[in-house]
Amino acid sequence: MEDLLNADGRATDHLDQAIGLVMAYAPKVLLAIITLTIGMWLINRFVAALDSKLGQKDPTLNKFLCGLVSVILKILLLISAASMIGIATTSFVAIIGAAGLAVGLALQGSLANFAGGVLILLFKPFKVGDTIEAQGFVGSVREISILYTIIDTFDNRRVVIPNGQLSNSSLTNMSVYETRRCDMSFGIGYNDDIDKAKAILQRLIFEDERALQDPAPLVVVGGLGDSSVNLTVRVWTKAGDLWPFNWDMQERVKKAFDAEGISIPFPQQQVHMLKAD
């Protein structure tokens, strides 16, 4: 009987301790949950407002900065909620630091991409909306995020390229200047009139409004090939007119040469058949 009474007494003590802990920590836990809920809502609202504001002024900086601000604010919110429960923030920060070091060592590539994103935003080799050629892809920059840059190719594919690769390798930005030079080459036969062919090319260029006259177009003999005289044509156009102008010129030159009797040589092979004695 005495053992039973002692057991009941210990159970009562444990129950009292449990009730005391619940009474002591329940308000803190509830306050922490409320703080987390309201804090997350406020952070999301703030980031959305920042996204809307920066999106109008600087689309390049927009996604990168919003993502970074969101991560930092949420970490600070978690630390604040932990301190409300009673967890020592110094220990919590130390744990986060140690975990961050371990994660950093495991995710060196991601850190390199983050550093690459910072370099891209600082030095601005390209911005959202620019047409670039990088890592074997050509397309328009859609978004520069914390770790990756997203481009949309002209055949409607979405390509995600790590920022670390973009910041440490060469790329071509085709949107920096308003004008670009269109380089073309047309071959004519050795028996054709060079001056006549050049005059036809100059006429076709002059008739096209997309061809800029300053700098002046250039039509010269660029080389003597195995079976053709190669005429080099260099014409400056607006950046958006480059490829349409190039494609149209290929067709118009072929039709004009045919109409004017200028030949365009193509590879031919002669086969001599020998009769057996």
TrEMBL record:
Query: What keywords appear on the UniProt entry?
Result: Cell inner membrane, Cell membrane, Ion channel, Ion transport, Membrane, Transmembrane, Transmembrane helix, Transport
Q: Per its UniProt entry, which superkingdom is the organism in? A: Bacteria
From the record, give the transmembrane residue ranges: 20-43, 64-88, 94-123
Q: Where in the cell is it found?
A: Cell inner membrane; Cell membrane
Cite the Mechanosensitive ion channel MscS C-terminal domain residue spans from the record. 184-264
Principal place where this protein is found? membrane
Q: Name one Pfam family in it.
A: MS_channel_3rd
Mechanosensitive ion channel MscS domain mapped to chain residues: 110-175
Q: How does it sit in the membrane?
A: Multi-pass membrane protein
Q: What does this protein do?
A: Mechanosensitive channel that participates in the regulation of osmotic pressure changes within the cell, opening in response to stretch forces in the membrane lipid bilayer, without the need for other proteins. Contributes to normal resistance to hypoosmotic shock. Forms an ion channel of 1.0 nanosiemens conductance with a slight preference for anions.
Cited PANTHER family: SMALL-CONDUCTANCE MECHANOSENSITIVE CHANNEL
Into which family does the record put it?
Belongs to the MscS (TC 1.A.23) family.
Quaternary structure and interacting proteins, as annotated: Homoheptamer.
Q: What is this protein called?
A: Small-conductance mechanosensitive channel
In its UniProt entry, the species of origin is given as Halomonas marinisediminis
